[in-house]
From TrEMBL:
InterPro entries attached to this UniProt entry: Gonadal
Pfam families: DGCR6 (PF07324)
Superkingdom as given in the UniProt entry: Eukaryota
Family named by the database record: Belongs to the gonadal family.
UniProt organism field: Papilio xuthus
Designated name of the protein: Gonadal protein gdl
Length: 173
C-alpha cells in the first residue's frame, strides 16, 4: 500500500492526536500566552500538519537560520580579531609615551564600530524572522503573519516549538 492515500479514519486519528498534543503543549505556556493560542488556532494548526510539508518547511527554515546565525557570529568575531590586531600593531609602532592615548582612542573607535556592527546584525536577524513569518503565512500555517510586536513574535516562537516537538514524535499514520 506504498503511496496510497490514508483512509478518512486514519486522517481523523492523526488529527485527534495532533490536536491533543497541541492542547497539552499550549497548557504548558504561561497564562498570558495561553489566551493567545485559542482552540481554533490549535485546530487549524493540527489540520495543516496532517500533511508533512509544514514539518519540512519548518526544518528548512531552522537550518537556514542556524547557518545565518553562524555566519553573523563569524563576522562579529572577525571584527573583534581585527581590532585586537590593530591594537597590537599600534603598540609595536608607537612610542611608549603615546601608547596609552592611542590605545584609548582605538578602544573608543572599536567600541563604536562593534556597536554599529551589532545593530546591523540585529537588523539582519529581524529580517530573517520577517522572511520566516512570510514563508509560513504563505504556506497557510495558522498564527503566522509578518509582525514585529514582541508578544506576537513570542506566540509564533511557541507555535514553531510545538511544530518542532511534533515533528520528533511518532504520529499515528
Amino acid at each position: 500500500m506504498e503511496g496510497s492515500e490514508p483512509t478518512p479514519e486514519a486522517l481523523q486519528r492523526k488529527l485527534y492526536f495532533l490536536l491533543e498534543q497541541l492542547q497539552d503543549m499550549a497548557r504548558e505556556l504561561p497564562p498570558k500566552y495561553q489566551m493567545r493560542v485559542p482552540i481554533e488556532l490549535l485546530s487549524g494548526l493540527a489540520n495543516c500538519l496532517l500533511n508533512d510539508t509544514i514539518f519540512e518547511i519548518v526544518k528548512g527554515l531552522m537550518e537556514i537560520q542556524h547557518v545565518t546565525e553562524k555566519h553573523l557570529f563569524q563576522q562579529r568575531l572577525q571584527i573583534i580579531n581585527n581590532h585586537t590586531m590593530e591594537i597590537q600593531e599600534m603598540m609595536k609602532n608607537t612610542v611608549p609615551e603615546q601608547q596609552e592615548v592611542q590605545k584609548t582612542n582605538l578602544l573608543r573607535r572599536h567600541k563604536e564600530e562593534l556597536k554599529q556592527t551589532d545593530m546591523k546584525l540585529v537588523l539582519q536577524l529581524d529580517q530573517k524572522v520577517s522572511d520566516q513569518q512570510d514563508t509560513l503565512e504563505k504556506a497557510g500555517v495558522p498564527g503566522f503573519f509578518v509582525t514585529s510586536k514582541p508578544i506576537e513574535v513570542k506566540v509564533q516562537m511557541y507555535l514553531l516549538d510545538f511544530i518542532l516537538r511534533l515533528s520528533k514524535m511518532d504520529i499515528p499514520q
